[in-house]
Amino acid sequence: MEGSPIPVLTVPTAPYQDQRPTGGGGLRRPTGLFEGQRNYLPNFIQSVLSSIDLRDRQGCTMVVGSEKIGRLIIGQNGILSTPAVSCIIRKIKAAGGIILTASHCPGGPGGEFGVKFNVANGGPAPDVVSDKIYQISKTIEEYAICPDLRIDLSRLGRQEFDLENKFKPFRVEIVDPVDIYLNLLRTIFDFNAIKSLLTGPGQLKIRVDAMHGVMGPYVRKVLCDELGAPANSAINCVPLEDFGGQHPDPNLTYATTLLEAMKGGEYGFGAAFDADGDRYMILGQNGFFVSPSDSLAIIAANLSCIPYFRQMGVRGFGRSMPTSMALDRVAKAMKVPVYETPAGWRFFSNLMDSGRCSLCGEESFGTGSDHLREKDGLWAVLVWLSIIAARKQSVEEIVRDHWAKFGRHYYCRFDYEGLEPKTTYYIMRDLEALVTDKSFIGQQFAVGSHVYSVAKTDSFEYVDPVDGTVTKKQGLRIIFSDASRLIFRLSSSSGVRATIRLYAESYERDPTGHDQEPQMNEFDKLWPAQSGFPSILFVSAQMHNTTK
Ligand code: G6P
Ligand code: ZN
């Protein structure tokens, strides 16, 4: 610390009316909007910080933040994955953390930019906090900033600054982005078992794609340096501002480089992550796809392969409502409860904090456990490698054995994007009237020789078992008598235009019926032509199938 105190400026500003954080996603907007609208970013950051009670804010630690805050923790070169932020917040008992990320969307100029806010338990801000931030952002009149504060992001360790209005020095700590997270992983997994799998004669050849997001350094350090995978197992490991022009979303539509490499047959295990490392996709040899819902159920059934769960026990499972019910079959066999929550990781936090839930997952390529309060892509990869090491089977064998034991939940998701919000509102309203009408119960629909009869319909509502919060209108469910389901849901993470998601799940107990392509279930034929649906959607939106 040297020289005279660094001035803290209070800058007058005008509020924006459109800074409502989306559930879980924080504030995500086109990069151009952040650049072009005056004070758009500082306004929002100030609103986030002001949402923390002054008493808690003074002298607290934030994982990346500012103003009246005593200490900042920043990842070296500004790189921290979402799971690592959750890990650090919990470890050092910070008041929260701010993550600047486009998440799984194209980033950089011409792409998107986002600000996520995690709270003191390490999890995404719950809705009450997001509402508070939104209210503040609509009336904000000034923000505080230290334009002259120069932090060397490359230098590990503590840097202290004398800020004008502070008695104590303002501390900034640059931490190794991987170290703290790696140490947590060491307490969860049997590193030796994974290392034996990845090294020596007969080693499992893996291919892991960091998609030019933040995961590169984590993948290299954990999988290559620590667990012995050859350096060329890890690809696209240099974090790039625009993700190399790619869409860093680990699914069959966007992780095509990995899919093609896996189809070559040379590798036995493939994985990809999104830009901030919370989402993941698993592929087996020849591009065998593990659906996120199946991945969750298989992990649940094999938790005893992981030292962490052997030690801690398994208390319960959580899945978002649209996630397939494959998990429920495992839970039933293990005699543990399943909590069915609205989409969005934040709904799992209370369950985990209160010790009700050990493992959670979503169909949107996220799985995690109570080691953190975020979904965690690299953790999921280490879980899979542990299972492969313990069972001595290939990815495909593990999945097929699982289906043989529990039955297969065929699963497809269709996204109708770019819809006019008003039209979307009417579609969902009319659809709700149609499916919740009493006459809809008992109706039968035939697809080939398979007859589905409607057993139950509703508009999904969640009552948080911990604090009693009620969350309504979380999707329309049509549940058939054999546990197959059709779900219509409004996406909460789309921007100005709206997105309707259609989730189709068909249960097949008989192992001779486990070899179909999921889309052969042609769910659209289920729908009586005269209802006018889904043709309404087909004409008004572009369809993307992301989870085939
Ligand atoms: C974000 C959250 C996920 C959630 C997803 C839902 O990615 O981090 O936890 O599943 O949003 O998105 P949607 O567009 O389906 O509302
Ligand atoms: Zn993400």
UniProtKB/TrEMBL annotation:
<dbReference type="InterPro" id="IPR016066">
    <property type="entry name" value="A-D-PHexomutase_CS"/>
</dbReference>
<dbReference type="GO" id="GO:0004614">
    <property type="term" value="F:phosphoglucomutase activity"/>
</dbReference>
<dbReference type="Pfam" id="PF02878">
    <property type="entry name" value="PGM_PMM_I"/>
</dbReference>
<keyword id="KW-0597">Phosphoprotein</keyword>
<dbReference type="GO" id="GO:0005975">
    <property type="term" value="P:carbohydrate metabolic process"/>
</dbReference>
<dbReference type="InterPro" id="IPR036900">
    <property type="entry name" value="A-D-PHexomutase_C_sf"/>
</dbReference>
<dbReference type="InterPro" id="IPR005841">
    <property type="entry name" value="Alpha-D-phosphohexomutase_SF"/>
</dbReference>
<dbReference type="InterPro" id="IPR045244">
    <property type="entry name" value="PGM"/>
</dbReference>
<dbReference type="GO" id="GO:0030055">
    <property type="term" value="C:cell-substrate junction"/>
</dbReference>
<dbReference type="GO" id="GO:0042383">
    <property type="term" value="C:sarcolemma"/>
</dbReference>
<dbReference type="GO" id="GO:0014706">
    <property type="term" value="P:striated muscle tissue development"/>
</dbReference>
<feature type="domain" description="Alpha-D-phosphohexomutase alpha/beta/alpha">
    <location>
        <begin position="73"/>
        <end position="143"/>
    </location>
</feature>
<dbReference type="Pfam" id="PF02879">
    <property type="entry name" value="PGM_PMM_II"/>
</dbReference>
<feature type="region of interest" description="Disordered">
    <location>
        <begin position="1"/>
        <end position="27"/>
    </location>
</feature>
<keyword id="KW-0479">Metal-binding</keyword>
<comment type="similarity">
    <text>Belongs to the phosphohexose mutase family.</text>
</comment>
<dbReference type="Pfam" id="PF02880">
    <property type="entry name" value="PGM_PMM_III"/>
</dbReference>
<keyword id="KW-0963">Cytoplasm</keyword>
<dbReference type="InterPro" id="IPR005845">
    <property type="entry name" value="A-D-PHexomutase_a/b/a-II"/>
</dbReference>
<dbReference type="GO" id="GO:0005829">
    <property type="term" value="C:cytosol"/>
</dbReference>
<dbReference type="InterPro" id="IPR005844">
    <property type="entry name" value="A-D-PHexomutase_a/b/a-I"/>
</dbReference>
<dbReference type="GO" id="GO:0005912">
    <property type="term" value="C:adherens junction"/>
</dbReference>
<dbReference type="GO" id="GO:0000287">
    <property type="term" value="F:magnesium ion binding"/>
</dbReference>
<protein>
    <submittedName>
        <fullName>Phosphoglucomutase-like protein 5</fullName>
    </submittedName>
</protein>
<dbReference type="InterPro" id="IPR005846">
    <property type="entry name" value="A-D-PHexomutase_a/b/a-III"/>
</dbReference>
<keyword id="KW-0460">Magnesium</keyword>
<dbReference type="GO" id="GO:0030239">
    <property type="term" value="P:myofibril assembly"/>
</dbReference>
<dbReference type="InterPro" id="IPR016055">
    <property type="entry name" value="A-D-PHexomutase_a/b/a-I/II/III"/>
</dbReference>
<feature type="domain" description="Alpha-D-phosphohexomutase alpha/beta/alpha">
    <location>
        <begin position="294"/>
        <end position="406"/>
    </location>
</feature>
<dbReference type="Pfam" id="PF24947">
    <property type="entry name" value="PGM1_C_vert_fung"/>
</dbReference>
<feature type="domain" description="Alpha-D-phosphohexomutase alpha/beta/alpha">
    <location>
        <begin position="181"/>
        <end position="286"/>
    </location>
</feature>
